[in-house]
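User: Hi! I'm a student and our assignment asks us to look at how structure tokens line up with a sequence. Could you show me two examples?

Assistant: Happy to help. In each example below, the sequence comes first and the structure tokens follow. Example one:
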Amino acid sequence: MTAPIATLERVESHLPDRRVAIETLSEPLGLSRAKMSLFRKVHGLHTLHQDPGASLFDLLLPAARQVVESLDDPRRIRFVIYVHAIHEVAPAGFDAAAVLRDALGLGHAEAFALSQQNCAGGLGAVEVAARLLADGDPADRTLLVIGDKPHSPLIQKVPNTALMGEGAAACLIAAAGPGDVVLSHVSRTLGEFARLISLPPEEAGLYGKAYAPVLADVMRGAVREAGLALDDIDLVIPHNVNMLAWRNTIAELGITADRVFLENIPRYSHCFAADPFVNYTTLRAAGRLVAGRHYLMAGVGAGATFTALALTHRGGAR
């Protein structure tokens, strides 16, 4: 196997308590009965979590606080990276990353945000965190805070593809800590689909045809760069865009569906860039991450970025 990129020292997630059936979005989003049937029967989305009365920071802070409070010395956190897929999360001049940092009592840390890779940004930020830590003190850590609150009907859906739920995650990254070993990260951006949400029908059709083959190829690349074979991967931990996209990708990979964790798609729908980390914590809580076994996280962001990273679970990460 290759030299590790970084380690996931701790991963936590948070979803609002309120869970609703996707049909409650029909009227606010102007979706017909046929469209709702598409989302439920074809894409496999049944419910999602949302709390209209809660703020963005109400969503983001619980998981991040769990991570910070687990540390004997929070000053080890040198960087705070806020990862969001919605580009405009606050008024101009309002630094959401700095507000998060200060709310967590981490005023000593450097804070900034990443949004360029949209829903693939959480996985991409792991490599950014690793690069920031590569030449520093081995005790340094980076805190990723990942999550979006869809504040407008325009961003509560990806037309004919996904409905957006609320969920957040926090991840503590070390250059070489005791947690899960990140063995590889592979990313590919198809810039010709940069206007993904507003592509003309012909271009949208081309993107649909490219989606599964490109994602499968990126996933194979991450496995290969990790010095592994696809058969070495115990389970794929995916983003939750929809069931159809993953059925097509599973067929491209030539693996059985039980090797991809799809159980959170009907429960949570698509929670932007937080999905793989929310799914990680679900698997961990169920005792389905086994020390010494290899896992593959994968996701796609509008625009269109395809990302995968391979890791080995050590059993020490929380």
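Example two works the same way, sequence first and then tokens:
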Amino acid sequence: MHERTVEQAHVSIDGSRFVLSPSQDVDALCEQLEAAVAGAGLVVRFTTMEGRQVRALITPRSRVLITDESVMYESDDAVLSLGASGNWDLL
């Protein structure tokens, strides 16, 4: 069995917590959240680890927390991961 540490991003919006998809651009999501609270509010879209498409109405009263967590990934199988550069990596 192979073990490796993988970084996972989480977003919590008004108490609801979501694990973000590895393909989700966290910096772009932060920019969308900042734009939403700068005005009257906006719908912000993101993808979860399970592939769910989430649309959240973010207003200046919304409480949003984004965290990164190192998690252990255990597998007997190698998997392909799409890197930030758009290249596939064998894990």
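Here is something you could point out in your write-up. The mean pLDDT is 84.
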